[in-house]
Amino acid sequence: MSLAHACRIVLLGPPGAGKGTQAQKLARRLGIPHISTGAILRAEAARGTDLGRRAAALMERGELVPDDVVLEIVQARLEQDDCRRGFILDGFPRSLAQAEALERECGVASAGLRVLSLDVPSEELVKRMVLRGRKDDREDVIRARLEVYRQQTEPLIAFYRERGALVPIDGIGSTEEVFERLMVQLGSCDGRAS
Ligand code: AMP
């Protein structure tokens, strides 16, 4: 069981820090699922479901989708079999309330997580997002998302540091360089090896 815990990963960091790209690469290398709440919400929006339509309006403004909606998605996903040996959460939790719900409602102890916190200065973030060109990557929406990050998500850094789960990572450099830094911190973690 200790291996399973070693592979419970949260990627934390501001929008544009490269969480999605790194999460995808880590999932492939470690053989555990990549769970991106943003990607799940965008898929719901593309399918035009009720939930998707409600979420889309908030996402286009850079605001957070309500906790209960996101929590239901995460809870259902974590119950699937492929998460037994670990998972990579990308974009969740995004607030203290969500971090507490992950513990209480999903039974995932904070102290058993590896919270990889990608550190990238704001000027660099805006540059990266403008290049990415997603629907919510317009400059005004980018600024709104950075503000939401500072107010709601950044307090998670202290939350996880206090629980001994925080692993700060320098997020400057090429995709490969940052990936290598992440892998060094995850040495003993292999979802296929249990
Ligand atoms: P992301 O792909 O992680 O950048 O998320 C894109 C957008 O989806 C965010 O700006 C939010 O509107 C919404 N979203 C994704 N994850 C969450 C979450 N954990 N809580 C609330 N809203 C979220």
3D structure, described in words:
By secondary structure, the protein is an alpha/beta fold. Helices cover 55% and strands 12% of the residues. It has 10 helices and 5 strands, in the order H-E-H-E-H-H-H-E-H-E-H-H-H-E-H. The chain has helices at 2-6, 19-30, 37-47, 50-61, 67-78, 96-104, 122-132, 139-153, 155-162, 175-185, and strands at 8-12, 34-36, 87-90, 114-119, 166-170. The chain has a 5-stranded parallel sheet with strand order 2-3-1-4-5, sandwiched between helices. Helix 2 packs across helix 10 (175-185) and helix 7 (122-132) packs across helix 8. It is globular, with a radius of gyration of 16 Å. The N and C termini lie close together (8 Å). The structure holds adenosine monophosphate. Adenosine monophosphate (AMP) binds at residues 15, 37-38, 41, 58-59, 62-65, 70, 91-92, 94, 98, 145.
